[in-house]
Design brief:
By secondary structure, the protein is mostly helical. It has one domain. The protein is 58% helix and 0% strand. It contains six helices and no strands. Helix 2 packs antiparallel against helix 3, helix 3 packs antiparallel against helix 4 and helix 4 packs parallel to helix 5. The longest helix is centred in the middle third of the chain and has 32 residues. The radius of gyration is 19 Å and the shape is elongated. The two termini are 30 Å apart. The mean pLDDT is 85.
């Protein structure tokens, strides 16, 4: 599958979610009541962190590849493994941020459920689409270092 994004037609090279979140009407958002950033800002920051960690893994992998072309006697991949660990953690944090984004769509006055975690709050609120989001992302949230 190929994903095509064009600056001229999409306004950004970022995922389509950035455009969609930027077009949400203010009347549908409750980010201020939850003391959160606008959902587009939450997503952009989260996406930037994932991209930064991916770049670090890519650079570490490239450095090791170049290093092993000249010296294969001492193979030390500890730094590369740490970068991969950080990248996987950033993906996990991105899922958490997605639940924060969904939280901004829930009116806290109408929702009396109280939870420490955004995921629990969103699921308990019965936000339309929350259960299906939980189901399609279930396998991504089980990373243990």
């Amino acid at each position: 599958m190929e994903i095509k994004r064009h600056l001229a037609t999409d306004g950004t090279f970022c995922p389509e979610a950035v455009n969609i979140l930027g077009q949400l009407p203010a009347s549908a958002l409750f980010h201020r009541q939850h003391q959160l950033r606008h959902p587009q800002s939450l997503y952009a920051l989260s996406h930037d962190r994932v991209a930064e960690q991916f770049l670090r893994v890519s650079n570490a992998c490239l450095a090791k590849t170049n290093e092993y072309q000249t010296d294969v006697q001492m193979i030390d991949v500890q730094e590369l493994l740490q970068q991969q660990d950080s990248f996987l953690r950033s993906l996990q944090e991105h899922l958490d941020d997605c639940y924060l984004i969904l939280t901004t769509l829930i009116n806290p006055v109408a929702q009396r459920k109280d939870s420490r975690f955004a995921k629990e709050f969103v699921i308990a609120s019965k936000l339309p689409g929350a259960k299906s989001f939980q189901q399609v992302t279930a396998d991504y949230g089980h990373y243990e270092s």
